Amino acid sequence: MKYKASFVIVYFWLAVLLVSGLLLFNFAEKEERLSEQENRMLSGFPELSAENIFSGDFSSDFENYLSDGVWGRDSIVGVSESLLRVFSAASSEEEKLLEDIAMSDELKLEGVDEDESPQVEEPIADSTEEPAVPFEDISTDTTDLPESEDESVDAAQQVTSIEGYGFWIERTDGTYSQMLFPKESHIKSAARMLNAFRSFTPEDGNVFYVNIPMKNAGLLLREKYYSRWFENISDGITQYADDGVHVLNVPSFLEQEIIDGKHIYFESDHHWTPLAAHILVNECLRIQGLPAIPYDEYDYKVGLFTNAKLGAKDDLEMLYPLQNVNGNVMPHGEEGPEFALINYDANTYMAYLCGDSRTFVRYTTGFSTGRNALVIGDSFSNVFAPYLMPYYDEVYKIDARKYSFYRNGGSISELMKKYEIDDVYLVVSYATGVTSKVTYYELEAALYGES
Amino acid sequence: MANPKTKTPEEAFVLRVVRVSVIIALIAAVVGTLVVLNLDSVKKLSASLLASQGNYSGAVSIAESLPDEEKRLECEYQIAGHMFDNGDYSQAAQLYSQFNGYKESDERYLESSYCLADRLYLEGQYSEALSTFASLGDYSDSPERQQQVIYAMAAQAEEHGNHSQAINLYLSLGDYSDSYDKAYEVAMLIAGDEESAKAVLSFGGLSPESIDQALEITKRRADYPGTVIAAGAYHTVLLHSDGTVSACGDNSYGQCDVDSWKNIVQISAGAYHTVGLKADGTVVAAGDNTYGQCEVSGFKDIVEIACADTDTYALSSDGRVSMCGYHKYDSVTRATDVVSIYAGSYAVTVETANGTFISSHKTHQPESGSRVLALGLGTGYLVSLNPDGTLVTSFETEKSGERIAFFDAGPNGVIASDVSGRVWSHIFRTSDRIDFSDLEGVTQCAAGTEHYVFLTEDGSVLAYGDNSFGQCDTDSLGSAF
To answer: Do the chains contact at B412 and A369, CB–CB below 8 Å?
Structure first.
């Protein structure tokens, strides 16, 4: 008996040691690293500082760190996607749409702790300071609250008629796959947000809203069961938009290009390509009456972009800017370390602004035009921003998903005023678009000062 | 008793008549039979007879009635021959052209057309003669005959006082006879001096109206040669007639520190640097040198300079281009026999002695074979000044402006002045547009980032637009003359 008890105790403590070791191994401090499967940087151990703790950023970043640090994460994500396909009744076409939805959710997650600046000794700006413009607490305004707290992209539905606002892909049998289901409240909220940004640009300024469908929706156009895609969301927003606000109907510009086999979306990634972004940049320029620089005016380095899991590979065109571009991270709104526009050593989407961009960066373009631009977006804005360089003295870029009042040195409106922003480009995928909380209220809140 | 074998006179007469009638009938029958059996031949003969007498319509009608295809063709072929023999070459050629290679119809067609063209030429119907000779391709000496006709047309135009047309026609003949000398003679008549006459001749191929305008523009540009004013991003530079230079505006990089410059014959401005070409062929520079764009001390025997935003280009007397600054364009620095340099923003284009253009970027290269007086390179766009005074821009499908003599392309738009001194502009953003309609007597123009500078006929400098750095305070610059 005694010996048995000893064995039990020994085994118990061995098990405890084993589990402790596993936990220690799994959750030991890690740096941020790349996940090829999800094509984003996984969170590293967040910075431990009084500022981060009291702001609440440490706890939210630590949560992301634990989530991203689970051992075998890649396998778990892969299995869950496989199960979804196996048990789903969706056709192979709808599978692609569901992949887009899964990608959408991933895109909205909090990203990397990007702060690379030296430790700030002085406290940041007094948070009790009144913002330049009184902030309307829209979070307490219940009239436009979304029905569900999590404004993720709704599951695609097969419908037989066009009703309300949405984004549809028409099938050859006359039915439609509808991917987005914005309500009137979404439309109005997006317009209100855009108008708010417009109010902080000068009289001759512009605000552009470029909302891009995800890759799989685009690739369906090349399949025999689908004939076209279209949306009426942009028209819906435009009816409420002020002068100087331009909402682009992105599908209408990309549809024929996709059907003609142009390289619009990557095969091995969910992003659109530099060529696709160039098309929309040119439309923004045309609206302003500016001459467009042809796509092949630039020299490109073509890198091979692979995704071993999908067995797909692409050419990733990394352009060489026409003038020398200097980039800087802008922690707390001040110039920080250098940050490259293009990483020519990368062979993935990381080439452009390191994939998941830093929250706030500035590019001094090398051109003298007398104007500055602000690009706000998710990772879809990464290939968009470089084509704006010749038209602005400085291009600032904010990651819409990771904006922080305290980290970025003020509200977006304050930053716009400080850096004399003339034109604003909101470039987001559907995941961060009209039906997402980012567009619905987070951006407007960030504009006025809340994060 | 009467003899029963004796016929009465009446009976003899009747018998005689009957015999004659029978004979006639037999003959008629034989002839008719022969005719019936050889009707086609008779028709052919008839048609030929008619054609020989010029009755072509009748002859053709008979020919068309022939049932046999081969015989019909043969008959018509004979008719065509008669047409040719009668000198009716036009009708002969038309008829021969319908035979689709029957016998020697192709050859006869060419022969007929040639004779027709020759007759038209002799009759002075030069346009018709030219088009007819042209339709013959390489038949006989048709190409030479065409030149002969054009020469005659040129002489006719000259005689009638259509000098521009005469010049165009003479010049179109190239080395034929003394056509170039004749063109020069006429050019002298309208230009008055040798230099202008040569300029007029360089516009060969333009319409008469365009030649007149081109001459006007050439004279205007000759009256105000070189580059007297220049605009950087936020500074303005003026070259005085005594070879000194003045500048105003942004001086953050020392780009306005040009007061000590002497014996300057040309100036140019990049975004934040200023460059001057000295009379001895050396180059001086002031301002931003971040990328070495002011490293000009090594430039020698320079005849022309040009600046992009962050680059400096220099054309030497041997037709080679040197450059310093941010960019490196081997296609341009390897070019030979360069006669002009155009630079702007990030691009550069050079023109060689044989009229070809070599550019760092496709967007900034004029179409092959195009004639331009000057180029302007903007951010992603090109502007060409045609000899007829119109501007061709890469951002518009139609030509712009009229009788333009000077222009400049900036990051935010294009400004120009015409031969009468009025200003034309195309500023891209509506909110940035300025009304220049009151300006008069303007010659050269220079476009900065957001300010626009004009040189007037009396040498004064006017500036409009953004003045945040004092770049429009041109009173301080003084007069150019």
So the answer is: yes
